[in-house]
Amino acid sequence: MDVSEAIRTRRSVGKVSEEIPDKRLIDKLLEAARWAPNHHLTQPWLYYVLSGDARLRLGEVLKEIKAEGLSEEEREQAADQLAREKKKPLRAPVVIAVGVTPSEDPRVEEIEEICAVAAGVQNVLLTAHSLGLGAIWRTGKPTYHPKMKEFFGLRKMDTLLGFIYIGYPSVLSRERERLPIEERVEWWDC
């Protein structure tokens, strides 16, 4: 599969089997991530690979965040919802948490660091697709919660960018309609 085909045919795959991808395949994904472009060669990425019971610990943090601010009575009423929150990381056999550790070099813009890590995520997603794996990049408010930062041992200046759920696809994702590129491009002749 060439790069153009991988880009055109990659889909977010939210339903994967419980079969655990071989560590060598995960290593290939992470190797692809490290080749993302990054200004000043800061390499601002951190990857945390979770499988097995480590996903349960992540689920506990998700549950804590969801329960935050609820009274004991409200927690009891939301017990099913909290249990579902705790199980979210079990939707895939491997979850990669993606962190940004921005350089302290004053020449470096934080947004460039975030963009570099996002480019690394795209490399992971494309490589996963090319290897026959299913992957989806998941985010949401709990991703950016201080408890999540604490769980991963991130510094105040660091950011968690999201989670990549990885496994073998159990269903084929359909192609979704995209806007024609002409609607999002302006050609300027200077």
TrEMBL record:
Positions of FMN binding: R10, R11, S12, H39, W137, R138, T139
Free-text comment on the cofactor: Binds 1 FMN per subunit.
InterPro entries listed in its UniProt record: NAD(P)H_nitroreductase (IPR052530), Nitroreductase (IPR029479), Nitroreductase-like (IPR000415), YdjA-like (IPR026021)
EC number(s) given by UniProt: 1.-.-.-
Alphabetical keyword list: Flavoprotein, FMN, NAD, NADP, Oxidoreductase
Molecular-function annotations in GO: oxidoreductase activity
Domain Nitroreductase: 7-168
Pfam families: Nitroreductase (PF00881)
Cofactor field: FMN
SUPFAM superfamilies per record: FMN-dependent nitroreductase-like
Protein name: Putative NAD(P)H nitroreductase
Organism the protein comes from: Marininema mesophilum
Lineage, broadest ranks: Bacteria, Bacillati, Bacillota, Bacilli, Bacillales
